[in-house]
User: Fold LacI family DNA-binding transcriptional regulator from Actinotalea soli.
Amino acid sequence: MAATINDVARVAGVSISTVSYALSGKRPIGEKTRQRIESAILELQYQPNAGARALAGRRTYILAVTEPLRPDTYTPAHMAFVLAAATAARAYDYDVLLLTQDEATGGLHRVTSSRLVDGVIVLDVLAEDERAELVRSLDVPAALVGIPADTDGLVCVDLDFEAAARLAVDRLADGGHRVVGLLGHPPSVYARGSNFPLRFREAFVTHAAERDLEVRLGAPERTIAGVREAVAEILGPDRDLTGLVMHCEDTIQMRTLDVLCAAGLRVPQDVSVISAASTFDTSTFAPPLDVIPLIPAESCSRAVELTIAQITGTVEPRVELIPPTYVDRGSTAPRRP
Amino acid sequence: MAATINDVARVAGVSISTVSYALSGKRPIGEKTRQRIESAILELQYQPNAGARALAGRRTYILAVTEPLRPDTYTPAHMAFVLAAATAARAYDYDVLLLTQDEATGGLHRVTSSRLVDGVIVLDVLAEDERAELVRSLDVPAALVGIPADTDGLVCVDLDFEAAARLAVDRLADGGHRVVGLLGHPPSVYARGSNFPLRFREAFVTHAAERDLEVRLGAPERTIAGVREAVAEILGPDRDLTGLVMHCEDTIQMRTLDVLCAAGLRVPQDVSVISAASTFDTSTFAPPLDVIPLIPAESCSRAVELTIAQITGTVEPRVELIPPTYVDRGSTAPRRP
DNA sequence: GACCGTCGTCGAAGCGCTTCGACGACACTG
DNA sequence: CAGTGTCGTCGAAGCGCTTCGACGACGGTC
Assistant:
């Protein structure tokens, strides 16, 4: 059997409460006592029993991460967030319970009301998301990565997609480009109400209008043919498009570059290209792309932070938007006269 | 505060042990009592406290899933296994704690010796894998999905990659093909000692020799150029290769089809193509490919089953190989004379 | 020197559940 | 009808931990 706190106390010749306080640091402990306890712990390979700790301490040190991974979502990007959340949680000594697919919603109720978890990280938030409702009504420490339509009473974190869209538009507008395109996600993604593609697209269109640009939108299917078609359409019959922003999966972006190349268009001489809100590495693309990165670790570690702050104290509901940054890799250039 | 078993007992007018037995079914309960208890549970929205249950019952109903997700591994395929494990676990009323990256090894010790989890599912097993050692020495209920070099004392489950390789070889050999190629993973994957690519490749080479075939191996990098080069090499200067087996990521497979098409080679008229041990859907490829599928749900649910069997009883160490199946989609044809 | 505060330690009371042993109430045996 | 089971229920003893209150031993104050 595994050693218990009783064994440690006996070996160290102190009471169990002393051991507990030595471990938690909630009361001062004499130097010599502490050392005896520490060596007893080492000797016995003592690890506190998680169940007992949860029961007595009312903390499990587990966070639920809910990520539906809906059929048409793009796994790598979403998993990057799950991983980032897991890593961030470990930095605070929390473990992560994974709730996916149907459990993403159903399991949320179960794990919170059985006090299996201390808090919840909600990923891939839709504009209308059951889980947002659930979190609100359950009144459990939680942070959403993404912004639902109704943020009332919730703690949300996300990249500032609107600002990212403006940043991309400005870059092209400042370069003198007049006709710009946005290559987005497959139509089904917009239909589902996934929030960030919509937010990005709206801000893109709005700000392009403010900057007096002509805008063309594409929502290619994932197939080669789909990309080819969308690119052809966006370029226009006269191929007068000179600025292209891509806010989509890596395969689509790579294929787009292939298609541009095949069409004899050079980047950035003929077309300036920006990869926006991408979770993957665009520096290995051919050519490497300018990017406004979406860094999972950033939003997730903030979400974990805010959740833990709610567990240990109290946090005002809020929406925190992370300002975007622009990484220049030479895939944009001023428009040639 | 959440309702406890005490509240339920009070409302139902019985003792707490009766409630507990009603819940677990470990002793018979009178019909009327059971109903009173059930309605009390509904009324109070009672959910047993996970920590207390773990402490008293010595079961947490949590399984650890360890998946290192090493830098060069292909996320979608690996995550498919994580998801399958989570889903399978839920079917047995177990939740899943995710251990990735550095925690995949380090966290294993922590979560088992603190009794946070009842068992462990080990994914992406290397030929030489620390986690196999750890599981052996920890003596914790566990199942590995994949086969380490030393399986002594371990419970392992996996697709029978050797049989899959033979199946692919036989299909081509029976079709009269004499020169066959295997397009595998990037070199780094083989170098790392990931076990299934190696097992597949070895069996492929061995069995092709038995069938008197000439074998060409390719291990393309993920880039377009990498694929193009590997395909050119495998086809040979005379393009005498007529059978191709792909055991690699979906992007590489798609690109290979693009490259074949660009080279004017038709599938299956000029080249017969088989996708082997693939976790993704090859029916949407152009053309749809014959496939020997690797079904994560299959190995994972068996792994979960075997782990839970170890928790509740005892299971002999073993290696269970899942027989491969062949799905015909018309991408192979007899060799033209 | 009486008084106070801090430090370091202990004992004991839970936390909410499972499970063992006990026991009354029956329904069978023979 | 005494003996033997099974059924349905209860009380109580933990499971291993945290935390509260208490208390002796000091060192400082006035």
Chain B has three domains: 5-48, 62-159+296-322, 161-293. Chain B touches chain A at residues 2, 45, 47-55, 60, 62, 65, 69, 75-76, 79-80, 82-83, 86-87, 90, 95-98, 100-101, 103, 107, 110-111, 113-116, 223-224, 251, 254, 258, 284, 286 (CB under 8 Å).
